[in-house]
Amino acid sequence: MKHFQTILLLSMLMAFAFINVVKAQNVHTLNPYLNNDEQNRKSGFSNDSTETTDVPEGIYAWRINERFGDIIPASYDTIPHGFQNENQTYGANGHYNFTGNLGAPRISRYFTEQGTNMQSHPFIFTQPYDFFLKSTQDLLFTNTKSPFTNLSYHSCGNKQNGEDRIKALFSVNAGKKLGLGFKADYLYGRGYYQAQSTAHFDGTLYASYHDEKYQMHTYFQHTYLKNRENGGIESDDYVKRPETFPTRYGTADMPINLDRAWNKIGGNLFYLTHRYSLGFDRYRDAKGRVVPAPKPLVQAPVAKDSTLLAADTLTHKAQPRIPGKEHNAEELANAIPDSMKITREFVPVSSFIHTMRIDDNTRKFIANQSNSINDGGYFNDFFLPYNRPVEYTDSAFERTHHLGIENTFAVELHEGMNRWMKMGLRLYGKHEYHQFSFRLPYIYNLAQKTRFNENYITVGGQLLSQQNKFIRYNVLGEVRTTGTDWGEFNTEANLQLNIPLKRDSLHLNVNAFVRNERPSFYYRHYIGRNANWNNPNLDKMLHSRVQGILSYKDTRVRVSLENVQKYIYFQETLSPFTGTDNVTSYHHSVGVAQANKNLQLLEVSLMHHLHLGIFHWENELTYQATTNSDVYPVPTFNAYSNIYLLFRIAKVLRTELGADVRYFTRYKAPTYSPIIGQYAVQDGNYAVKLGNYPIVNAYVNFHLKRTRFYLMASHLNYTSGAGNPFLVPHYPLNRMTIHFGISWNFVN
After folding, report:
1. How many Å apart are CA 715 and CA 669, to the nearest integer?
2. DSSP label at 379?
3. What pLDDT, in 10s, does the model give residues 644-679?
4. Among the listed residues 437, 454, 439, 358, the one whose alpha carbon sits nearest the alpha carbon of residue 401
5. N or C: which end of the chain has fewer CB within 10 A?
6. Which tens digit of pLDDT belongs to each residue from 168-208?
7. Which residues contact 80 (CB under 8 A, 6 or more apart)?
8. What backbone torsions phi and psi does residue 56 show, to the nearest 5 degrees?
9. Would you give the distance in Å from CA 151 to the centre of its chain?
10. Domain ranges (residues) in the chain
């Protein structure tokens, strides 16, 4: 770990040194990645109706598809709207449950954002930290005219309970084709309750190269996550009914279930995708019509030191000449009327694509607790070690490691290479190697290591059409042909319709998938001190979903329907006992369960933005239904509402003054198990319902040129002893706190 940190630090220092070399250059480049009709849409609404933002001049950003490296248009994060919610763990619209602290493990209340599949990352322990850790498709690649730097800082609370986060991003171009950059992200949440701190670090170096025939994207990421686990408070009544106790506890004084337990996750990721294309040159006139290749130029004499006329501005006719003056090629090109200019474009016919991903991840669970199976304490199960002295049976130090190497090779025939090729075709194969290991204190000074190796070969194909202005689609199918997951398959499809309507556009997006997938490794095998299972014969899940999104101007409707056969999940089991202050406490166990009956889920969501002058009102209302709430609990109704005034002070200071509220109906929300660092279904015998409790924030958000900053009072409606301020069972939310944040953009 220390070696990787040293390498990362040296890399950043080298990047800063490189800045001094290229800082003075003014790289003039056009955006080769974005089409005018493919601009990023805010919140999925029509680009025709979306407010434009002040993106620094000459900065272009895009994302890539992880499987093939396809470019996805995006915007660099300079949007001033909603900046105050950027650093909230429960998400911009508040639809995530989390254990209360900044960067704490979280889970979405929308089923469409949950679940795993055979394409998801097999190291499941990072999934609850998706607020901090981003996937490959979330990483922004950049192309800049000049070096660009962004610094962000968020803070709240004091030295005892406060939260701080600092982010830095730097991007630069070394020529028109090569883009480089790095980002660093550090988060530290001290916690308002005992033993609840978080400390996360992420450092990423990235690069991209783009010319007509060869494109490349790569990055290296180092992460370290440290989450101190307190197991929740001993009794919810400390928060809900404090008057029932002789002592009125503050947040830092409430008895907790664990006081010396940690989850630590370290990871390193190397990713590379690149492609080489074969094709031909095609020429178009000023009206976009395809024309024959131009003949050699007939031009006036030029000076010996003059440059040649660029091939991109060729024309059939002789170039004009001003009497009495000699002209070089650049002057001649500028003198050509626009109607006579012919432009050249490279038309790819076929591409050869290679994508590689190497993951190295480790998770440690440490619990130095003074309890045993015969005593009061948090843990109910003590699987290991069997033959150590009694004094060692009340502690845990377990470690699991994952090494994953994936290589995907694809051949593509491009859409539009001739008039008969109305769609693109890809054929690909992927090899995956995964090594999982467990290391535990087994006997005194020895350690036993259990290792599992898995190899998979997947073959597949994809049909896609992305050049039509009104309709676009892609269909993908793949199947695993070797290994223990033989016969596992995945099919997915996406359809986009863009219909002009009353000077705007109506957008319809339909996507669907059907997957036959084996539960990932850690559902089948886990060897730990307080959790242990071996389920090699779990049935495969048949998982299908269809979703439609209809958007027009400031309104969007989303409908999703999902069916799962043999759904697999984590299940918590509680064993009650009487603890301190005559409070009923519980021994905790966690295991794996699989549903016997089909599970159906339905989601209907409506999003609307109303604006009248300076008055703005945003709403997101979501209805969900499940056929088995004991297996897959979701709230029936979820709402987010944001009311604000948008105006300018002194004509230059963009100001948002408003308040927002988050709300969901009561349901048996998933509980969090620190034993495995995952969310699980509550024990049905002791389940508690959460919800029917609004969370209100008030804020003022400013934007001045290249600087954004805000001041916010979160959980404004908190009152001691009133309501049910929990998003996760037994993990209360922080009380009312004042947040501050600022972001600077620097363009050199």
Report:
1. 20
2. B
3. 999 999 999 999 999 999 999 999 999 999 999 999
4. 437
5. N
6. 999 999 988 999 999 999 999 999 999 999 999 999 999 99
7. 53, 654, 656, 701, 702, 703, 708
8. -50, 135
9. 20
10. 74-277+349-747
